[in-house]
Design goal:
CATH class of the largest domain: Alpha Beta
CATH architecture of the largest domain: 3-Layer(aba) Sandwich
Structural class: alpha/beta
Strand order of the largest sheet: 2-1-3-4
Distance between the termini: 39 Å
GO molecular function, one term: amino-acid racemase activity
Family: Belongs to the HyuE racemase family.
Shape: globular
Protein name: Asp/Glu/hydantoin racemase
InterPro entries: Asp/Glu/hydantoin_racemase, Asp/Glu_race, Hydantoin_racemase-like, Iso_Racemase_Enz_sf
Number of domains: 2
CATH topology of the largest domain: Rossmann fold
Number of helices: 9
C-alpha cells in the first residue's frame, strides 16, 4: 500500500481537518494508495502578507521534514501557494506535489488561457509569484476576487448562499469578458464549490487539491520524482534545528490560547 501525506497548512482539530479530507471524494484514486492528513504545528492565521508566507514555508517544512523516514511515499501540500514545496523537495527524494503550479500547468493542457478565482484580493500575490516562476503570466487571462474573507477551518460551511452566487458571477466574467478557456479554483478551501460551479459553466474547472492527489498517484505509478539538479540537497541539513523551532513555536501557540 502506497502512503501519501497531505500537509494542511493551518493548525486545526479533527472536525476541521475532516473538511479538508472531504476532497478525496472528488477523485477516484483506485486501490493500493492511502492518503493521511496532517495539520501543521505552527503557522500564520492566513496567507495575506510576506510575513505570513515566511511562516507558511517553515510550518510546512516542519510538518513534512520526516515524511520519508515515517514511510510515506509522497507528499501533497494542501495550499495553492505551494508553501514549503521547494524546501521539502530539497530535503526529500519522494515526490512533493504543490497544487498551485500543477493546476496552472494542467490548465495549459486543457486550453490556451486560464483564469484563477480567488476568495479575496490579498491572495493575489500567491498566484503572481507562481506565474512569474513558471513564465506563464501571459497565459493567465485574469485573477478575479470574490471579495470574501476566507475561513481556513470552516471553509464555505454556512456561507454557501453568499459565496456561490459571487463565484458564478466572477466565473462568467472570466469567460465572457477576459477570454478564459479554463478556470482554476484559487484555493483548496474552495473545493466544496467545485461540482456546483462545474455544472454551471461551459469550460473546464480545475479543483487543485484532488488534482494534486492524482498527480502524486501518477508520479508513484511512473516512478517519477523531482530533479535533484533543480532542488539540490543541503550540504549541511539542520533537521534537529528545524524540529526544535517547530516545537518551540507550537508551545508558544499553546500558551497564547
Amino acid at each position: 500500500m502506497k502512503k501519501v501525506l497531505v500537509i494542511v497548512p493551518f493548525p486545526m482539530g479533527d472536525d476541521d481537518l475532516a473538511r479538508r479530507q472531504a476532497q478525496l471524494g472528488a477523485v477516484d484514486l483506485g486501490p493500493g494508495i492511502a492518503f493521511h492528513y496532517r495539520a501543521v504545528r505552527v503557522g500564520p492565521r492566513n496567507y495575506s502578507s510576506q510575513h505570513d508566507m515566511a511562516l507558511a514555508d517553515f510550518s510546512i517544512l516542519d510538518a513534512g521534514l520526516d515524511a520519508q523516514a515515517e514511510g510515506y511515499d509522497a507528499v501533497c501540500i494542501d495550499t495553492m501557494s505551494d508553501s514549503g514545496m521547494a524546501m521539502l523537495r530539497s530535503m526529500l527524494t519522494i515526490p512533493v506535489i504543490g497544487p498551485g503550479r500543477h493546476a496552472m500547468l494542467v490548465a495549459q493542457m486543457l486550453g490556451d488561457s486560464f483564469s484563477i478565482l480567488m476568495m479575496w484580493d490579498r491572495w493575489r500575490m500567491l498566484y503572481t509569484r507562481t506565474l512569474a516562476e513558471l513564465g506563464m503570466a501571459h497565459k493567465c487571462a485574469s485573477l478575479r476576487s470574490l471579495g470574501v474573507t476566507p475561513d481556513n477551518k470552516a471553509l464555505l460551511s454556512g456561507k454557501e448562499d453568499e459565496v456561490l452566487p459571487l463565484l458564478l458571477a466572477a466565473a462568467r466574467r472570466c469567460i465572457d469578458e477576459d477570454g478564459a478557456q479554463v478556470l482554476i479554483l484559487g484555493s483548496t478551501t474552495m473545493h466544496e464549490a467545485h461540482a456546483w460551479l462545474a455544472e454551471r459553466v461551459d469550460v473546464p474547472v480545475i479543483n487543485p487539491g484532488p488534482l494534486s492527489y492524482k498527480l502524486a498517484s501518477v508520479a508513484l505509478d511512473l516512478g517519477l520524482g523531482h530533479s535533484r539538479t533543480t532542488w539540490p540537497a543541503p550540504l549541511a541539513p539542520k533537521h534537529a534545528m528545524i524540529r526544535a523551532i517547530g516545537y518551540a513555536g507550537a508551545a508558544c501557540l499553546e500558551s497564547a490560547q
